[in-house]
Amino acid sequence: MTEPNAGDAAPAPEAARASQPADAAKTANPSAGAAPAEATPEATPAVDVAALQQEVAEHKDRLLRTLAEMENLRRRTEREVADARTYGISGFARDLLGVADNLRRALDAVAAEKRDALPAPVLAFVEGVELTERELLKVFERNGVRRFDPKGEKFDPNVHQAMFEVPDPSQPTGTVVQVVQAGFMIGERVLRPAMVGVSKGGPKTAPASAPAGSPAAADAAATSAGNGPAANGAGTTGDKPGA
Q: Which stretches within the chain are classed as H helix?
């Protein structure tokens, strides 16, 4: 038999130990060397088009409602700001009405026809009061407050306050014939109603007259003259032939 050569000796212990970790890794993770598997596409769920359209319509409706509410809020805010600018001084202006009333009473106490007979100092004082009143009314007007005198107008309970009735046949009933205290407006609102006396017992408003030449006008004229058909009996019994 042939004896083994010295060059065919067993592998060195170091080479055996170096191959052991690689074999252990392959044993622990057998799929490490395999090619990665392709991902399986998932099944696409069915899309409910009608439900999506309904959801879009609901969102659109909410958006339109929100826009409309914002527009209404903007307009309401602008109106409130304008009202605050116009009517914010109502309390202060109402307190100054007494000053205007006193100035007017002082001027009414001096008759216009007697002013020429007044001494110069008194006349200067009266003119000063007139100037003060005019300036106060100008300040009122610059701030939207104006005085009104309704004498001769028809009584309006919205802007007038009736204090008494005056028997006056020369004026239609319900006419303002006397102003006790002038009224004031601020913007479109009544700051203070005018205190007035109203006529009573006068003629009522005449009805519209019928056109000339019409049957109604002819009947009215005949009735007023006492020559109507009922007055003289004309037309009630005709003349009999041969009578």
A: 13-28, 49-87, 90-108, 120-142, 215-225, 229-232
